[in-house]
Design brief:
about 325 residues; alpha/beta; six-stranded mixed sheet; 9 helices
Length: about 325
């Protein structure tokens, strides 16, 4: 294999693509501290943590900056965690998702940052003339190229010009795995073959999940997906659904009374049978809208973290659980 070198990677979620209501995973800033691994990976958001673990394999040691069960958008870094960003050989993140991570990268990183937006194209977070997002009129076909029609309720965080929640698009996740493998190979040339083989395996699994979504959501009674916050734009665009968000890209944003009335009207207009709540965010507002419209509620996980309340114990299992929830809620056959 050649001389063994020690390489560190910080994977952090920040926002071109956002929303994550609760990043989890291993203990924040924890993990095994590197041990004998070639690459130390520190993540800010769970989906990037999962990707780093899968692509890095046994050559990596992975830990997460966000405590399990915490809202990732609100992450505040300790001095020690900022030091981890500074010391890392690679900072793997989504710019704009977590302001604290963005700040640390700007202040202490030295050419070691790898932004997911440099690996895949992110959907624009478009706002209407009132500064609101809300309806995401997703069209059939691949959103990497058009990304049109996004509207959502006003957002409490500045996520820039893009929606950071790219991990709900299995195609983008697969492309990101390839880019991460290339970067890890640069940092640890002895592991290049392993990283690229792992990325190819991950791509196969992600493509299988994407196919399951295509087939499972092909024929449904309705295609309007009413969600607590607009974390599902990528998923909607990829599979011909229409996302209607109660809140915007940030789950903490309080929707206005006018927005609540608008969503309730849309639920009745489209005869929506299910309003989707999510883990780690209060379901109260969504439940109120559902009650007023005579609809049911079901939990759809934005995969911003893994907790005891998650419908699975890792990225693939939660994605498949989400498909089952969507299929039932939309009346798919």
């Amino acid at each position: 294999m050649g001389t063994r070198t020690t390489v560190k990677v910080v994977a952090a979620g920040a926002a071109a693509s956002v929303a994550l209501a609760g990043c989890g995973g291993t203990d924040a800033g924890g993990g095994d501290g590197g041990g004998g691994a070639e690459v130390t990976v520190v993540t800010g958001v769970y989906p990037l943590q999962w990707l780093a673990e899968e692509v890095g394999g046994d050559r990596t040691s992975v830990s997460n900056l966000t405590e399990p069960g915490s809202e990732p958008h609100d992450l505040e870094l300790t001095g020690r965690q900022t030091g981890e960003v500074s010391d890392a050989d690679v900072v793997f993140y989504i710019d704009g998702l977590q302001p604290a991570v963005d700040d640390a990268v700007a202040e202490v990183s030295d050419g070691n940052a790898l932004d997911v937006a440099d690996l895949v194209e992110l959907r624009p977070a478009e706002a209407d003339e009132e500064g609101h997002e809300g309806h995401d009129h997703a069209e059939e076909g691949h959103a990497h190229e058009d990304g049109e029609g996004e509207h959502a309720e006003g957002d409490g965080h500045d996520h820039g010009d893009h929606d950071p929640h790219m991990w709900l698009d299995t195609g983008r996740m697969a492309d990101t795995a390839d880019g991460l493998a290339d970067r890890l190979a640069e940092a640890d040339p002895d592991g290049a073959e392993d990283y690229r083989a792992n990325a190819e395996r991950v791509r196969g699994e992600l493509e299988a999940i994407g196919t399951e979504y295509d087939e499972g959501l092909a024929e449904c009674d309705g295609r309007e997906m009413v969600v607590n916050h607009t974390a599902f734009g990528y998923l909607a665009a990829e599979h011909g659904l229409e996302q209607i968000g109660i809140s915007g890209l940030s789950p903490e944003t309080e929707p206005s009374p006018a927005r609540l009335a608008e969503v309730a009207e849309l639920v009745e207009e489209h005869d929506v049978s299910t309003v989707f709540t999510e883990t780690l965010v209060s379901p109260a507002v969504a439940e109120t809208i559902a009650d007023e419209a005579g609809a049911e509620t079901a939990v759809l996980d934005p995969l911003e973290g893994i907790t005891e309340e998650s419908p699975g114990d890792d990225y693939p299992s939660v994605m498949r659980a989400n498909l089952e929830t969507l299929s039932e809620g939309l009346g798919c056959s």
